[in-house]
């Protein structure tokens, strides 16, 4: 009897895992990059922020990346520290909605930032990001 119950529990767990993986893999690449970007901002992860942002001029991409890196290194740690002090940090970032344009090369992605405690009289904040397709990758157009 106990063995049957254990087997039933194992099957249920396996089925739930498959559904969870399927649900997670359903997210769209432009939504994923928006969430990754926001999480990186709040974690002061300069490399990931740089990997997820759109740099317009390919001819001077290295130079622009270096300038962006300097700016990000100057203020991202402060943003992360400020969020930790005022909101207890960020609990999660989730996509609320996304709209892909007709050409399917630009999207507006609205994310919700969930704080660990109240910040500015709220426990969350909504941010809309513009995401653009560059070759095969999606990049966030930053509002720096």
TrEMBL record:
Entry-linked InterPro entries: DUF4878
Signal peptide: 1-22
Top-rank taxon: Bacteria
Keyword Plastid: no
A Pfam family of this chain: DUF4878
Keyword Signal: yes
Record keywords: Signal
Domain DUF4878: residue ranges: 33-141
Protein name: DUF4878 domain-containing protein
Origin species: Succinivibrio faecicola
UniProt lineage: Bacteria, Pseudomonadati, Pseudomonadota, Gammaproteobacteria, Aeromonadales
């Amino acid at each position: 009897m106990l063995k049957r119950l254990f087997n039933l529990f194992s099957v249920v767990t396996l089925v739930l895992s498959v559904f969870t993986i399927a649900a997670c893999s359903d997210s769209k690449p432009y939504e994923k990059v928006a969430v990754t970007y926001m999480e990186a901002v709040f974690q002061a992860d300069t490399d990931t922020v740089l990997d997820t942002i759109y740099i317009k001029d390919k001819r001077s991409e290295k130079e622009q990346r270096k300038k962006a890196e300097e700016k990000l290194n100057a203020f991202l740690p402060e943003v992360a520290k400020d969020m930790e002090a005022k909101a207890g940090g960020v609990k999660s970032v989730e996509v609320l909605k996304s709209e892909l344009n007709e050409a399917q090369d630009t999207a507006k992605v609205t994310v919700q930032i969930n704080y660990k405690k109240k910040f500015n009289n709220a426990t969350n904040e909504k941010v809309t990001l513009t995401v653009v397709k560059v070759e095969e990758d999606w990049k966030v157009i930053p509002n720096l």
